[in-house]
């Protein structure tokens, strides 16, 4: 039983570390996701200050809340399954993007697993046949 508790504790800590890094790394990087979206939108026409403000509110980029409060809100949103809005595929949500690309990812993993199994077994047979 102790083994399973240790494994569970390890995975909980690893999940917390991954989520924490996922929260802080984009905030440490230079640039702003709103600027990226404004650049995309400005190619289609003029962008007003109201549009910029709306994007900042939508993405949570113009938050006057302290960082610890933003972090707790982030964890709460994740617990409720709200992954937010995708910057790359705006205005699509992150959940929609994941649902759209997950079948292709699973197919790629399946094909790679079959190929690695076939190659691994073949090389293992070759190594066993030509010992030494």
Q: Can you describe this structure?
A:
This protein is mainly α and 132 residues long. The chain has two domains: 2-92, no CATH class; 93-132. It is built from five helices and no strands. Helix 2 (33-42) packs across helix 3 (49-59). The protein is extended and about 75 Å long.
Main features:
2 domains; mainly alpha; single chain; 132 residues; extended
N-to-C CA distance: 43 Å
Order of helices and strands: HHHHH
Contiguous low-pLDDT stretches (5 residues minimum) are none
Provide the gyration radius in Å.
Answer: 23 Å
Total beta strand runs: 0
Note the main sheet.
Answer: none
Q: Give the integer mean of the pLDDT values.
A: 88
Shape descriptor: extended
Provide the β-strand percentage band. Answer: under 5%
Q: Determine the structural class based on helices, strands and strand pairing.
A: mainly alpha
Tally of domains:
2
What is the count of DSSP helices, taking H or I runs of 4+ residues? 5
- Please bin the fraction of helical residues: over 70%
């Amino acid at each position: 039983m102790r083994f399973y508790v240790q494994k569970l504790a390890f995975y909980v800590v690893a999940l917390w570390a991954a989520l924490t890094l996922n929260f802080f790394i984009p905030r440490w990087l230079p640039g702003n996701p709103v600027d990226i979206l404004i650049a995309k939108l400005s190619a289609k026409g003029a962008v007003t200050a109201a549009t910029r403000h709306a994007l900042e509110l939508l993405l949570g980029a113009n938050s006057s809340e302290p960082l610890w409060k933003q972090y707790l809100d982030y964890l709460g949103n994740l617990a409720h399954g709200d992954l937010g809005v995708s910057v790359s595929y705006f205005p699509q949500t992150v959940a929609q993007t994941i649902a759209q690309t997950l079948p292709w990812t699973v197919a790629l993993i399946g094909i790679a697993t079959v190929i690695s199994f076939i190659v691994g077994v073949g090389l293992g047979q070759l190594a066993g046949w030509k010992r030494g």
